[in-house]
Amino acid sequence: MEKNLAALSAQNDSLLDMPAPAASAASPLRSWLSVVSVAIGAFAFVTTEFLPVGLLPQIASDLGVSPGTAGLMVTTPGIIAAISAPGLMLGAGRIDRRFILLALSILLLTSNLVSAFAPSFGVMLLGRALLGAALGGFWTLALATAGRLVRQEHAAKATAMILSGVTFATVIGVPLGTFISGLYSWRASFIATGALAAAALAAQAFLLPALPSKAAIRFSDLRALLSRATARKSLLMVALVFGAHFSSYTYVTPFLAENNFSLSAITSVLLGFGFVGFVANLAISTAVTRHLQASLFAMVTILLAALATLPLVHASPAAVAVMVLAWGVAFGAIPLCLSIWLQLSSPDLPEAGSALFVSIVQVAIALGSFTGGVVVDAVGISATLWLGGLLALTSLAVIASFGMGNKKLAEILAK
Q1: What is residue 140's predicted lDDT score, i.e. its pLDDT?
Q2: Are 287 and 12 within 8 A, CB to CB?
Q3: Where do the domains of the chain lie, and which CATH numbers do they carry?
Q4: What rounded mean pLDDT belongs to the chain?
Q5: Which of 331, 98, 343 is nearest to 213 (CA)?
Q6: Under DSSP, is residue 389 helix (H, G, I), strand (E, B) or coil?
């Protein structure tokens, strides 16, 4: 085990010691196309999950709720996904993972259609709950199977490609949803994401190979992983970082609107946020396994600086735009860093590790957006940026507690 972990730390692309039967049975091109199909699914899921961020004022006004209450559209799927991530994997047994991914894509499509035609906020939350039920299982499987779709030495690149769906969603998905809402209505935006979900379903049905499970995940696997002190501390770090981001990002559109940004300007800023995040994801993917801790520490530091500075420069549109772009750089790289960190924490239990990672991320999204909503309604939007900054500062302390500059981080994380 220690020998394998040392190799993981030394090689940029080798992440998981797991079989890749699908990759060996398919041509290299088809293997990479199967990764692309999952990346399209990631794009569809993330676009759907965070579409309300760009539409919050319109939906709140149309359905008769406050902006803070409207934030439940982000909180609800997060709570459900936190339960479904480990729950689905425990119940899936040894069912072919391809069939599960297809079923989850169908559920995503259903969620979008329910949301698009919701006559009330309660029905909207039902649609968002359906999203949460699919979301947890999708990310657990997407991250755990990335290395099975291609050759083992390309596992890191496959993971980065799938996670690029996150940044593509912020580059194109969320801003495009805001743009469509401006042209037509927020309902048209959900119809558009429904079409995107249908495209992801078709791509996966055609391109994904069979993904038989080698062993069913058991509750004892989750318990074994949580018994490791470094794994628990790693999950705490993940919760703090994602909580820092989503306690603030959920309300970035109202913040920009409050500071005299027009709808077109908000769309442009969100587009820039996603674009720089996409570039950051690509840039860091080549070095992240060699300099994982330093990369993560640097990105969270940038996140902290952006969140702490935004309330201070709110009177300057140019300064606000620059800080939001810096925020985009940080969060564009953070999911890949944290995903690989958790993979290194559980090389012997990849699906259990992915399930707990996704569950903690969704808890952080739910609690972050909910707490941010409470702060927004009680104090104001700027205050939730300070809250995010405090959580980011705390997460830096946890990252540093692993010992900065340690060249054998992989061995430490697997203890």
Answers
A1: 76
A2: yes
A3: 7-413 (1.20.1250.20)
A4: 79
A5: 98
A6: helix
- The DSSP string of 97-118 is HHHHHHHHHHHHHHHHHHHHT-
Provide the pLDDT for residue 155.
Answer: 67
- C-alpha distances out from residue 226 to 214, 292, 355, 408, Å: 22, 22, 12, 21
Per-residue pLDDT of 253-299, as tens digits, reads: 888 888 888 878 887 888 888 788 878 877 777 777 677 888 889 99
Q: How many CB atoms sit inside 10 A of residue 293's CB?
A: 20
Instruction: Determine phi and psi for 405, rounding to 5 degrees.
Output: 85, 5
pLDDT tens track for 196-245 = 899 999 988 988 887 776 656 677 777 777 777 888 888 899 999 999 99
Residues in the chain: 415
For residue 310, give the DSSP letter.
Answer: G
Q: What percent of the chain has pLDDT over 90?
A: 20
**Does residue 73 contact residue 124 with C-beta atoms inside 8 Å?**
yes
| C-alpha angle 11-12-14 in degrees, rounded to nearest 5 | 65
Structural contact between residues 134 and 226, judged by C-beta atoms closer than 8 angstroms: no
What distance in Å separates the CA atoms of residue 57 and residue 53, rounded to the nearest whole number? 9
